[in-house]
């Protein structure tokens, strides 16, 4: 061990530009290191000790990066919070993660403050980036503190919340390693080396998606530990992506298929305007990529497009450009440190080419859903774990996905769980029964459709649909709202009450290949 890891690299070369904010502000590694060190001293004075957690409701950029770097060298769990959530949803995560400090950016002050109230966290442990009324500035923790490396450094970790299929999201928590933070960071670089990515300051990593996503944090953090410059985007835009790739000589990024679809709709003169010769490892995941879309991206960008399939919980596959071209539509073969197992309803392995539930295993990695042992065990089969996706392996061990986790909706790369939306809609007095599912959407992959059986006396109408949707305001983030509501006289249910969602969903998918 010894040459990688942000803190080592920053000491060796404090002038290296480690991060670029969405507004173009460049941050020297030495300055970020000093801020992270000061923050550790400040939070320790507040009483934080190894194993404690902190939450950040912050946009993409250097402020969130400093929280991450402080936690990862002080043995804390850092939870970046989804900024689309409402106050009660934010409060739940702050309380459930047992956060000992909560950082709120002024952009998200309104819902952030509702979250503070909801969570019951002590106001003295809440800090603001920018101006948030009644909240201490984050600089209170760092001003006048030493920029020297804190004593007793030990590796921390991120704890991301994954949306549950039932009820509230769960924190995916791994045991702390007890390693030196730089050694732990160097081990993390194995993730990117599996794609063939190399260390070096000539590289830049473009952060195209919100940093509260597990993969975005993992890939960006790992690229930083390899000496790459992190170039942050605020709101994703197709042409801006090309501009940043040219301007910062971007070599790698993490994207979702929706990005590809948007990029391909740019006029040819815009597409050919930018020099993209620096692109080497453009990695995508999170949703199925239509085969024609991926072929078109290969034609434009060349053989720099890699795909993987994985879960926050650990384990996965990689499809290299060569592997995918030989097996179009595949999500690849198992990582060197991962194993795949496809089983039937009786948990028995299925023959090659037969679809079944995908189980994965990652050597030496254990995790738990914080505070939910039953949920953790429910997904396990000995050392393997499933998130419920269905797929099959071909003769050469290439994995193909068939269908999602039973009913999950993937819209623009975000996982959306219908049960949560159904629970909120059922509360409405004019709703007798409701089903939520994904229907095809050219741009987003899937859009959210709700089918409602009106309560007796309530007549179906556009006005009723608008009233029902309006009732979600402040209770559910906008991205989870159904795009439209259809009405039905009677919901198709079995005598045992089981909803036959497929009966409702299939007509919308007619003439389309629902299999991914």
Automatic annotation (TrEMBL):
Coiled coil: none annotated. InterPro entries: AMP-bd_C, AMP-bd_C_sf, AMP-binding_CS, AMP-dep_synth/lig_dom, ANL_N_sf. Gene3D superfamilies: 3.30.300.30, N-terminal domain of ligase-like. It is an enzyme of class 6 (ligase). This is Long-chain acyl-CoA synthetase. GO terms for molecular function: long-chain fatty acid-CoA ligase activity. Residues 7-364 form the AMP-dependent synthetase/ligase domain. Its EC number is 6.2.1.3. Pfam families: AMP-binding, AMP-binding_C. Keywords: Ligase. Residues 420-498 form the AMP-binding enzyme C-terminal domain.
């Amino acid at each position: 061990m010894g040459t990688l890891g942000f803190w080592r690299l920053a000491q060796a070369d404090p002038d290296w530009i480690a991060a670029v904010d969405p507004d173009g502000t460049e941050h020297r590694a030495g300055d970020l290191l000093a801020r992270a060190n000061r923050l550790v001293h400040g939070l320790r004075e507040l009483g934080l000790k190894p194993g404690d957690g902190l939450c950040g409701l912050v946009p993409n950029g250097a402020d969130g990066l400093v929280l991450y770097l402080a936690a990862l060298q002080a043995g804390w769990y850092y939870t970046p919070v989804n900024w689309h959530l409402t106050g009660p949803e934010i409060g739940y995560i702050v309380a459930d993660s047992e956060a000992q400090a909560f950082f709120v950016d002024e952009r998200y002050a309104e819902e952030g403050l509702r979250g503070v109230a909801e969570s019951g966290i002590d106001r003295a442990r809440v800090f603001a980036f920018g101006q948030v009324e009644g909240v201490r500035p984050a600089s209170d923790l760092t001003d006048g503190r030493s920029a020297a490396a804190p004593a007793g450094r030990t590796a921390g970790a991120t704890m991301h919340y994954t949306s549950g299929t039932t009820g509230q999201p769960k924190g995916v928590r791994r045991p702390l390693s007890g390693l030196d933070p730089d050694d732990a960071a160097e081990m993390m670089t194995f993730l990117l080396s599996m794609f063939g990515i190399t260390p070096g300051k000539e590289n830049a990593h473009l952060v195209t998606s919100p940093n509260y996503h597990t993969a975005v944090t993992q890939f960006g953090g790992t690229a930083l530990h390899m000496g790459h410059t992190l170039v942050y985007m605020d709101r994703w835009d197709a042409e801006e992506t090309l501009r940043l790739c040219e301007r910062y000589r971007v070599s790698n990024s993490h994207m979702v298929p929706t990005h590809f679809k948007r990029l391909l709709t740019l006029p040819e003169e815009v597409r050919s305007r930018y020099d993209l010769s620096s692109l080497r490892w453009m990695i995508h995941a999170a949703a199925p990529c239509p085969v024609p879309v991926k072929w078109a991206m290969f034609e434009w960008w060349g053989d720099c497009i890699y795909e993987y399939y994985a879960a926050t919980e650990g384990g996965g596959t990689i499809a290299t450009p060569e592997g995918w071209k030989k097996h179009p539509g595949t999500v690849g073969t198992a990582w060197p440190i991962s194993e795949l197992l496809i089983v039937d309803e009786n948990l028995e392995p299925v023959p090659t080419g037969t679809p079944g539930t995908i189980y994965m295993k990652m050597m030496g990695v254990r995790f738990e859903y914080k505070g939910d042992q039953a949920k953790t065990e429910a997904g396990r089969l000995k050392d393997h774990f499933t998130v419920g996706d269905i797929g099959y392996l071909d003769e050469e061990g290439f994995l193909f996905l068939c269908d999602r986790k039973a009913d999950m909706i993937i819209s623009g790369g975000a996982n959306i769980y219908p049960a949560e939306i159904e629970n909120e809609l059922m509360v409405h007095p004019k709703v007798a029964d409701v089903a939520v599912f994904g229907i095809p959407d050219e741009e987003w992959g899937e859009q959210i459709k709700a089918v409602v059986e009106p309560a007796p006396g309530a007549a179906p109408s556009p006005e009723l649909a608008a009233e029902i949707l309006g009732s979600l305001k402040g209770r559910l983030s906008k991205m989870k709202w159904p795009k439209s509501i259809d009405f039905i006289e009677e919901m198709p249910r079995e005598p045992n009450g089981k909803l036959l969602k497929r009966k409702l969903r299939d007509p919308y998918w007619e003439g389309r290949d629902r299999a991914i």
